[in-house]
Design a protein that fits this description.
The chain is about 35% helix and about 25% strand. It contains 10 helices and 20 strands. The strands form 4 sheets. A 7-stranded mixed sheet has the order 7-6-15-16-17-14-18, with helices on both faces. The protein has a 6-stranded mixed sheet with strand order 9-3-2-13-20-19.
C-alpha cells in the first residue's frame, strides 16, 4: 500500500447527493478535496428519486436538465380506494433517476477541482491529532477534515462515532418499465397511499417511461413488507396489468427524536473530532414521508460551510455544523415526527379529512416549495382545522 503524501483540506467518503454537494462547495471555494466512492458513476440505484421543489433554493438551475417528471399534484388514496387528487398551480416536486442525478452532482464537483477516486472502497478510518486518516485497498490518505457521506450503513459512523445507533426503517421498491405512452396516475401527478401498510405508506412516482413503485413501514420490524408490497400492487388498479419486477429492499435512515443533548467538545451526533456526518449517514431523513435527497444536499452545504469557516478562522469550530443541524433541521424533523404520528396512527381519519381540508394540503405544498417551514405549516394548519378535530389530533400527540 502506497501512502498519499498529500494532506488534503478535506476528504469526503461517499458521492451521493450529500457528499457530492459538500465536495463541490469546498472545492469551489478553493480547498483541496479528495472524494472517495466505492462504486463508479453513473451508478444505478432503485430509488423514488423525489426532490421537493424547494431543492431549487439549493442547486444550480442546471439540475433541471435531468428531471424526468415535474409534479404539481398528488393523488391520495387509502388502501387503493377513495382517490382524492389535490393539485397546486406550481411545481411541488421533481422526479429524477438517481444514476443521472448523482452523476450530475459528481461532474459538478469534478469540474471545480475535486480529486475523485471511484471504484475504491474505504477500509478503515482513524482520528489523528490534527486530522483524519482514511485507508483503502489502494492507499492511505490524510485530511484535515473527514466528511462521512456513505449512506445509511455508514462505515465512517461505525468507525468514528462508536455507540451511535439510530433507527432505519425497511423499504421495498421496484422500477417498472411502462414505455412512453402510459402516464400513471396522471400527467404531473404522484400517488401516495397512506393506508397501504402498517404505520407507513406506499407510492407511485412517475419517471420517463417508467414508474417507481414502493412501500415503507415506519416501524422497526414489520410483519412482512413483501406481503405489503404485493397487496399494494394487486390492489392499485393502475398497476394490476403491469409486470412488476421483484422489489429491492434498502434501509431508510429516519431522523430519531432520541438524540442526546448538545454538549460541545464531546462526541456529538454529527461531529466527532474532525469527522462530520451528512445526509443518510447522519440519519437526516424526513420521518413523515422519508424525503432524504433535499436534506442530503442541504446538510452537505451546511457541512461545507462549517469546514470553510473553521479553516479560514481558527477561532471557529466544526461544532458549528452540529449546532446548525440542531437549530435548523431538528425543529423541522420534530414537527414531521408529530405529523407522522397522526397520519400513521389514524390513516383513515386523515384520508377522510383531505377533502374538507384541502387548504391544509395546499399549505403543505408550500413547504415542499420552500415558501413555508414545517413550523409555520403546523401553526397555520392548526388554525384551519375545526376545534373538535384538532382536539382529537392533539390528544393523540399528548401536546395539550
Amino acid at each position: 500500500m502506497v501512502p498519499d503524501n498529500k494532506t488534503y483540506d478535506a476528504i469526503v467518503v461517499g458521492l451521493g447527493p450529500a457528499g457530492a454537494t459538500a465536495a463541490y462547495e469546498m472545492s469551489r471555494a478553493g480547498l483541496s478535496v479528495l472524494a472517495i466512492e466505492k462504486q463508479t458513476h453513473p451508478r444505478y440505484k432503485v430509488c423514488g428519486g423525489g426532490l421537493s421543489a424547494r431543492i431549487e433554493q439549493l442547486l444550480d438551475p442546471g439540475f433541471k436538465s435531468i428531471v424526468e417528471q415535474t409534479i404539481s399534484g398528488i393523488q391520495f388514496s387509502y388502501r387503493g380506494q377513495d382517490s382524492i387528487s389535490i393539485e397546486s398551480p406550481n411545481p411541488i416536486a421533481y422526479m429524477v433517476m438517481r444514476d443521472r442525478f448523482d452523476h450530475h452532482l459528481v461532474q459538478q464537483a469534478r469540474r471545480v477541482g475535486t480529486d475523485i477516486h471511484e471504484g475504491e472502497p474505504s477500509k478503515s478510518f482513524r482520528h489523528l491529532p490534527d486530522g483524519v486518516e482514511v485507508t483503502t485497498d489502494r492507499g492511505c490518505y490524510q485530511g484535515k477534515v473527514l466528511i462521512g457521506a456513505d449512506g445509511a450503513n455508514s462505515q465512517v459512523a461505525r468507525h468514528l462515532f462508536p455507540g451511535r445507533r439510530l433507527r432505519c426503517i425497511p423499504t421495498l421498491e421496484s422500477e417498472v418499465e411502462v414505455g412512453p405512452g402510459l402516464q400513471y396516475p396522471a400527467p404531473g401527478k404522484a400517488l401516495v397511499d397512506i393506508g397501504a401498510g402498517s404505520m407507513g405508506y406506499a407510492w407511485v412516482f412517475p419517471k420517463q417511461g417508467r414508474l417507481s413503485v414502493g412501500v415503507g413501514e415506519f416501524q422497526s420490524k414489520p410483519a412482512s413488507l413483501k406481503n405489503t408490497f404485493d397487496r399494494f400492487v394487486r390492489g392499485e388498479m393502475g398497476l394490476t396489468s403491469l409486470d412488476i419486477p421483484k422489489p429491492l429492499g434498502h434501509p431508510l435512515p429516519l431522523f430519531s427524536n432520541r438524540i442526546e443533548p448538545y454538549k460541545e467538545q464531546e462526541p456529538g451526533e454529527f461531529v466527532n473530532g474532525r469527522a462530520l456526518l451528512v445526509g443518510d449517514a447522519g440519519h437526516l431523513v424526513d420521518p413523515l414521508f422519508g424525503e432524504g435527497i433535499y436534506y442530503a444536499v442541504r446538510s452537505g452545504k451546511m457541512a461545507a460551510t462549517a469546514v470553510l469557516d473553521q479553516l479560514h478562522d481558527r477561532s471557529k469550530s466544526l461544532w458549528g455544523y452540529e449546532l446548525a443541524i440542531r437549530e435548523e433541521l431538528y425543529p423541522e424533523f420534530r414537527i414531521c415526527s408529530r405529523l407522522a404520528d397522526i397520519v400513521y396512527m389514524f390513516p383513515r381519519l386523515c384520508h377522510r379529512l383531505l377533502n374538507p381540508y384541502r387548504e391544509v394540503i395546499q399549505v403543505y405544498y408550500e413547504v415542499m416549495q420552500g415558501k413555508e417551514t414545517y413550523q409555520s405549516f403546523y401553526r397555520r394548519a392548526k388554525g384551519m382545522v375545526k376545534s373538535s378535530t384538532r382536539e382529537l389530533l392533539l390528544e393523540a400527540l399528548h401536546l395539550r
